[in-house]
Amino acid sequence: MTEPARPREVAAIDIGSNSFHMVVARIIGQSLQIISRHKQRVHLASGLDSQSNLDQAAINRGLHCLAMFAERLQGFEPENVRIAATYTLRQAKNAHVFLKRAESVLSYPIEIIPGTEEARLIYLGVAHTQPDSGKKLVVDIGGGSTELIIGDDFEPQLAYSKHMGCVSYHKRFFAKGKISAKNMAAAQLAAQQKLESIASQYIREGWQTAIGSSGTIKAIREVLIGQGHSDGVITAKRLQQLSEAILTVKHYDELNFDGLNEDRKPVFAAGVAILCAVFNSLNIDEMNFSDGALREGLLYEMEERFRHSDIRVRTATAMAAQYNVDIAQANRVKATAELLYNQIEPQPGMTKVELATLLSWGAQLHEVGLSISYPGFHRHSAYLLRHSTMPGFNLEQQTVLATLVRFQRKSLKLEEMPELSIYKRKHLYPLIRTLRLAVVLNGQRSDDPLPAIVVNADKENWRLTLPEGWEESNRLLAADLRQEQEYWRKAGWELVLMPDND
Question: For 375-433, what is each residue's pLDDT tens digit?
């Protein structure tokens, strides 16, 4: 009798500004069964200096934690692990140093995700772990940023990430651990100023229930329970009373609330100040707590059945519509790029499959910059893809898309390529060559099908075989291809054009 197949196990790691979290789950049918949680207080954000560089001590704390997490991940396939880094690594100018050293500790890629993507994933994690349906406001106060999302069921509708967190506000307003009414008021006012630009929009949108997630709001809830509020609901009145109770001490060491852990004490006053500002700015009466957060959102997206691929489709479609992309031309370039790439990578591994997917998105969106102007539109396209809000894409993926469209035409100034952390430059070169050829071959913007094209690739030396006699009947295309040969030659690449004599 054969044993039943073991359920698939997946793991997600949230590299936060205050704490690192790991959660492991089994996929059982259409649901996730959490089987272990791990948390380490790392205080990564406290290691950011005035130049936005992470100091060595913070890097070492982070690597030590990841080494412990790696022990639990032994035997996990790469497709079953997802690691997301948030505010502090978004801000750190030397994030690449941390990521490079992390490679030797963890054999899985670390994604640095944009703030709006963090917000979307937080909402997804909360929505999947809350029994209530309907319209929700979700607030997540982290170490370096605060995410605010309004959504209905599993669909986020408004999502913002604000640069205010319990660690960064502790450093800014509660230097050396001193607590005073003046410091508390200054922190709260600064947070309300951050929220000023979005408050009216959120209030107009409205919600049925307000839900808080992650460590800061969890700590506040546990202190309120310790004060006798056994329902654990955070109300405006209770929050104000808690703020006043904090002001009865002069230093965070003196905070002795039941339910408040020692390692949460340093950043507790800053967290309370931010949540008070959120309550005041958005006119919140009460808030419940959810165990679901970013890491649960990562888990739910890991399984195709949980619609991650649909999100990127919707993002690309919406962006193409927003910038009036010629869909017929985009589809022609996309089809040609996929045809060529399949010839040079007939049996791609997982990394190449992901890159092939990004090549397809890049082809679909390569002309978004035309909405700005034709001269230099490849640079405009790159800027839009790098800096737009693109749900479903992490920062590295947006950088890859931007790089592909930046180098789709004109001279190959490869020294301008940005630094990457998950992929290597050599991974992108075949994609750049492929997209360039697809763009040139469809330069006539014609619905007439292209002739049979064969491409053979040997590193930077490519041979393009087209039907015999094609040059006589496609003189403009032939001229464009000869110009392309020159661009390749100046970059140290070779493009050979061969007639098919068969």
Answer: 899 999 999 999 988 888 888 899 999 999 999 999 999 888 988 888 888 889 999 99
Domain check: are 218 and 275 in the same one?
A: yes
Same domain for 109 and 124, yes or no, is no
pLDDT (average), residues 301-326: 76
Cβ atoms of residues 316 and 364 within 8 Å: yes
Q: Within 10 A of 308 (CB to CB), how many other CB atoms are there?
A: 16
- Exposure letters 48-62 (e unless 16+ CB within 10 A, then b): beeeebbeeebbebb
The position carrying tokens 């700015």 is 281
Q: What's the confidence (pLDDT) of residue 153?
A: 83
Structural tokens at position 330: 């985009």
Report if residue 152 sits inside a domain: yes
Could you identify the residue written with the tokens 């791990």? Answer: 38
Using DSSP bridges, classify how beta strands 135-141 and 494-500 pair: parallel, antiparallel or unpaired: unpaired
- Residue 302 domain flag: no
Q: What strands lie across the sheet with 461-467, from one edge to the other?
A: 454-458, 461-467, 494-500
pTM value is 0.79
Numbers of helices and strands, H then E, in the chain: 18, 14
DSSP secondary structure, 98-155, as one string:
HHHHHHTT-SS-EEEPPHHHHHHHHHHHHHHH-S--SEEEEEEE-SS-EEEEEEETTE
Residue 315 or 201, more confident: 201
pLDDT at residue number 310: 62
